């Protein structure tokens, strides 16, 4: 939704345009009013404005001078000039400041609506251009290191569909192809450096990758990332098939280069690192298995060691994937539930359940471990939101449920998740009801000054979000409700003969009685005087 600023030294014109046109239908969410060019510039400096409608003939600073300032400071703002003078000189001067249109007074609503509708469409098209392929490609190039890092991390966790991967490999200009022979290398920084800040570590990691590219880049394409364990991970593929190599020589050559890399990091960067090199496999099918095997090796064999090197030749034992390994992968169950990512939580839970069902050997302890982790995420969510889990799920009986099998675990976990999600949605509905009541109470107390912006400020919400939320809940816009309440209050006040019509007008926030009479007549089909006479 967009915002509009109306500027004219005649308050009647400003108020009439602000209140009589259904701006929301034109996708204008916020309408600001200014009665001088100086006031307009102040509003522009404080608020995001998309379109300005300004009168040319204003004292002290004319509309032409105003749009000149707008052109200089706010190039994105569209300007429309109003004037009672059909002089080409004005229009010609306005063109110099990229004024979008030039309308003559007296102004018809239809003409203005047509111009605003055209400008709204133009603004939308310009924003579309911002996200067009040309801009996206430019942005993509700047973001490639981050995007490549993210994609490799997702591959390590086996979260990328093959059809998506092919597109992204081409988009990111990565030379990896299906069924390429690959090897994975993990580099773990050993020494803790309290004197180093995050920027220093970033530069250090950058230097390590540069040394790796310098040493391996002639023979291998490299793709690197930083994993969830703060290790550097490199995936390597041979650039070409070298016939001179004997069978089985590739792993030995790669291991030799990896050992030289470890030595050079110590020599040139004065850093101690451990390096583990995987067996060779196929891209992308084996990458998750190779990486999981390596991380298990690091946990089991390098827990209390530093400066170690493990090659593919040294880890011959068969790697058995633990049935609950996905539970510990990021994002964790705690994180998904805390952020109310209900569907992702269900998907992860179902994946773990399927892994457990397909596991070759699954003990009752594995079931209890999974139960403990899932239950812990539920308790964490409840207490994080200052609630008792028993209150969210409707009692304590289900909390102590004994789970012996994977099927029982699945049924219990999905039941609990449904209850928690339902409680969350009910709480949100209650919160929306309270907010709606708060908005209406504010309007009733401040009927003369209430506007979308003042209400948003009072309840600490963005005007666009507030408007959407209120309309979803009540079926009407905030401005509609304000107008309706003003008319109801006006009809009530007119019953008191001691109140002058101009006084009623002022109390309800109208700038003058003439405009109040116009709006009242549109609402009730008669003027305030006629309404009072028939009482």
UniProtKB/TrEMBL annotation:
InterPro entries: CheY-like_superfamily, Homeodomain-like_sf, HptR, HTH_AraC, HTH_AraC-typ_CS, Sig_transdc_resp-reg_receiver, Tscrpt_reg_AraC-type_HTH
Domain Response regulatory: 3-120
Positions where 4-aspartylphosphate occurs in the chain: 55
Transmembrane segments: none
Entry's localization field: Cytoplasm
Location of the HTH araC/xylS-type domain: 437-534
Classification of source organism: Bacteria, Bacillati, Bacillota, Bacilli, Bacillales
Name the record gives this protein: Two-component system response regulator YesN
Signal peptide (from-to): none
Keywords: Cytoplasm, DNA-binding, Phosphoprotein, Transcription, Transcription regulation, Two-component regulatory system
Coiled coil feature spans: none
The species this protein was found in: Paenibacillus harenae
Pfam entry (one): Response_reg
């Amino acid at each position: 939704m967009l915002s509009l600023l109306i500027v004219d030294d005649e308050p009647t014109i400003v108020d009439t345009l602000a209140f009589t046109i259904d701006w929301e239908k034109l996708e204008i969410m916020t309408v600001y009013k200014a009665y001088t060019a100086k006031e307009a510039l102040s509003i522009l400096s404080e608020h995001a404005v998309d379109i300005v409608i300004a009168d040319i003939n204003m004292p002290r600073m004319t509309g032409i001078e105003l749009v000149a300032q707008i052109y200089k400071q706010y190039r994105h703002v569209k300007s429309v000039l109003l004037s009672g003078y059909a002089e080409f000189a004005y229009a010609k001067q306005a063109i110099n400041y990229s004024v979008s249109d030039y309308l003559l007074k007296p102004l018809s609503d239809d003409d203005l609506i047509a111009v605003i509708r055209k400008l709204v469409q133009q603004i939308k098209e310009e924003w579309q251009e911002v996200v067009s392929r040309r801009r996206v490609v430019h942005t993509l190039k700047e973001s490639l290191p981050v995007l490549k890092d993210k994609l490799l991390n997702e591959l390590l966790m086996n979260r990328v569909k093959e059809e998506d991967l092919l597109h992204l490999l081409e988009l990111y200009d990565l030379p990896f192809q299906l069924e390429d022979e690959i090897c994975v290398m993990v580099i773990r920084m050993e020494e803790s450096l309290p004197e180093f800040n995050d920027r220093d570590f970033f530069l250090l990691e950058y230097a390590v990758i540069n040394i790796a590219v310098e040493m391996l880049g002639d023979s291998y394409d490299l793709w690197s990332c930083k994993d969830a364990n703060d290790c550097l991970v490199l995936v390597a593929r041979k650039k070409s098939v070298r016939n001179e190599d004997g069978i089985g020589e590739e792993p030995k050559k790669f291991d030799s280069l990896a050992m030289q890399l470890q030595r050079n990091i110590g020599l040139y960067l004065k850093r101690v690192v451990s390096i583990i090199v995987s067996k060779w496999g196929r891209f992308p099918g084996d990458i998750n298995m190779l990486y999981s095997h390596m991380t298990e090796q690091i946990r089991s064999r390098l827990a209390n060691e530093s400066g170690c090197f493990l090659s593919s030749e040294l880890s011959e034992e068969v790697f058995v994937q633990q049935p609950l390994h996905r539970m510990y992968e990021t994002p964790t169950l705690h994180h998904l539930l805390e952020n109310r990512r209900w569907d992702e939580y269900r998907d992860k839970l179902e994946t773990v359940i399927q892994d457990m069902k397909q596991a070759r050997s699954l003990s009752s302890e594995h079931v209890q471990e999974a139960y403990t982790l899932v239950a812990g995420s539920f308790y964490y969510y409840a207490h994080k939101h200052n609630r008792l889990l028993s209150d969210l799920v409707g009692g304590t009986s289900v909390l102590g449920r004994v789970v012996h099998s994977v099927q029982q675990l699945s049924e219990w976990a999905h039941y609990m998740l449904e209850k928690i999600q339902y409680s969350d949605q009910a709480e949100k509905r209650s919160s929306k009801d309270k907010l709606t009541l708060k908005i209406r109470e504010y309007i009733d107390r401040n009927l003369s000054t209430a506007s979308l912006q003042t209400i948003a400020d009072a309840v600490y919400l963005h005007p666009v979000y507030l408007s959407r939320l209120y309309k979803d809940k009540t079926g009407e816009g905030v401005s509609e409700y304000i107008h309706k309440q003003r008319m109801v209050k006006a009809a009530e006040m007119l019953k008191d003969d001691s109140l002058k019509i101009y006084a009623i007008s002022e109390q309800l926030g109208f700038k003058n009685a003439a405009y109040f009479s116009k709006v009242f007549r549109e609402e009730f089909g008669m003027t305030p005087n006629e309404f009072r006479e028939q009482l």
